[in-house]
Design brief:
The chain is α+β, with helices and mostly antiparallel strands. 42% of the residues lie in helices and 16% in strands. A hairpin with a 5-residue loop joins β4 and β5.
Length: 253
């Protein structure tokens, strides 16, 4: 990977964001799978840090919360997917999307339980300009009991913070359906559309969220980060490649 130009690295990341598998990118880019995996890990760490630093003090009043299940398999394991995803190892991707701009404000990988729901809501509240109070245990249990999406509405309280109101979503709005469907795809797959490593899944989700927010342009020609006043211009994948620390991306052979 040390000999790849920034343009080729950007092309590899773009193929991953558009749903290509690790093996598929290896064949299309004519590089080693170790090269693609190393770039995936380095870019994932950078994107996770960028998302954590830049998405702060956001003005969001209505958010769509969705949970997407990604199965994780080991070599030789036979997968039979059922309706409630029980009996299979996997990870749930929790995401909160601003209903006005489509910006993915917060995300978290974990189980579908109260502990993950609480950590997800706490991280979300820290990214808003009005610090929101956490949900009750009953509301957290309601969030984690099934895969149905929810609306999270922020209401200004009597004090300096705001209160969160939980609402079930009968149907996902059309402008957010595509983003949630893409986020729910099984990233970094090696075969049959399934991922083998939760670490690779975490890195790929981090890369996809940054690409979705800062790189992908809407019909207006602006990115979601520009519309949300998080960035002053549209990024490209080369900006993400340039942010990778030289110590991790240009080590001597």
């Amino acid at each position: 990977m040390n000999r790849l130009s920034p343009e080729r690295r950007a092309d590899i990341l773009l193929m991953l964001c558009r749903g290509a598998s690790l093996r598929g990118v290896t064949r299309a880019a004519n590089v080693s799978i170790n090269t693609v995996t190393k770039l995936l890990v380095d870019a994932g760490m950078v994107c996770e840090d960028l998302h954590d630093r830049m998405l702060r003090k956001l003005v969001s009043t209505r958010l769509l919360c969705c949970k997407s299940w990604s199965p994780l398999v080991t070599p030789g394991e036979r997968i039979v997917v059922d309706g409630d995803c029980t009996g299979h190892s996997g990870a749930w991707t929790w995401s909160a999307t601003d209903c006005d701009t489509g910006l993915i404000v917060s995300y978290r990988l974990g189980a579908r339980d109260i502990a993950t729901a609480r950590a997800f809501i706490v991280d979300l509240s820290h990214r808003l300009s009005l610090r929101a109070t956490t949900l009750t245990r009953a509301e957290l249990a309601e969030m984690s009991q099934d895969g149905a999406p929810f609306f999270l509405t922020m209401h200004r309280g009597d004090g300096p913070g705001s209160h969160i109101r939980l609402e079930r979503v009968p149907t996902i709005p059309h402008n957010l359906a595509t983003a949630q469907r893409m986020l729910g795809r099984r990233f970094t797959r090696l075969r049959n559309g399934y991922c083998r490593k939760v670490e690779n899944l975490a890195h790929m989700v981090a890369i996809y969220v940054v690409w979705h927010n800062f790189v992908q342009k809407r019909r207006s020609g602006r990115t979601r980060a520009v519309d949300s006043k998080v960035a002053d211009r549209a990024w490209n994948m080369i900006d993400i490649v340039a942010a990778i620390h030289p110590r991790t991306s240009h080590r001597p052979r």
